[in-house]
Amino acid sequence: MTSPSKNFRKIIHIDMDAFYASIEQRDHPEYRGKPIVVGGSPEGRGGVVATASYEARKFGIRSAMPSKRARQLCETVIFVRPRFDVYKEVSQKIREIFHRFTDIIEPLSLDEAYLDVTHDKQGIGSAIDIAKLIRQAIRDELQLTASAGVSINKFVAKIASDMNKPDGLTFIGPSRIEKFMEDLPVEKFFGVGRVTAEKMRNMGLHKGADLKQLSEEELVKRFGKPGKFFYKIVRGIDDRAVQPDRETKSVGAEDTFPYDLEEAGEMVEELDKIATILEGRLKRHGLKGRTITLKIKYHDFKQVTRSQSLTQGVDDKATVLEIAQQLLLATDLEEKKIRLLGISLSNFGEPGERSRRDEGNDQLPLFQGEW
Question: Looking at the record, which segments are called Disordered (predicted)?
């Protein structure tokens, strides 16, 4: 049930196809057409798959799968060590392509983002045409493929981008959304994980149409706060704006590794890469922070943070990296395996000064006309 005013945002969700694996196959001809996984361990001694090529996926290999299981499914699978610096560089080039059409971009990760093209920079007008142009530019300039979903809100656009992978484009317009949501399996709904999906199926709730039979009160009673979201989204209502700019309380960068780091040298090396990205973001936004925070997530998913505040704001990599290393080495690294590291800066400006606020697009005029 969409708004009767017919005022809709025009949202594109771009999702790169097997991003890490596709880059490796692009750069290494010997990997093309073969089952490869990025990350993990060829000997099956721990580690998980970060990305699997489509050839590997035919054997049932998926992201986050243990290396040992991947090897069991396909004896000829090729394990490739990740090159995060390359992936980040390619991701930046993809963002530059996005910016040719709109500055209202909400990155979700290195390989996917939402774009609001309600009023595009080139005056093209058609979200479908813009999605086609973006995909063609990625193909021509980067020799990679991307899938796109086009709709009136973020939720539907994201699901649409996954419908014709790889190298697909799916448009779900206003008139199709209600039926689309009714037919959608419950496990495809945002916020519905394996446990919740099983709970729903045990209640006889298999598709959106089943959820639609329940009142908002009933959904909240059964599923808590997410019930309010389920009530709206099953009716095609998702008012969340694409948010590239928010009140900047902190700026950070982090990486989740496809295998657990065990050596201090490896950890420091990764911190160096993270600090480089963070410096770029600080310079781009013209921000200097006085509090440096290190984030650590261990192999057992336990998470800790350590912070240090300075008397003056900084934005240079050398200072940030030095303090982050000190914070890391001050923790107990003995027999600890690390799966994620992150660095962030906060407390911008002078003491007592308000944090910088960027303008969002919540008040953006909505689109009226053709797709």
Answer: 350-371
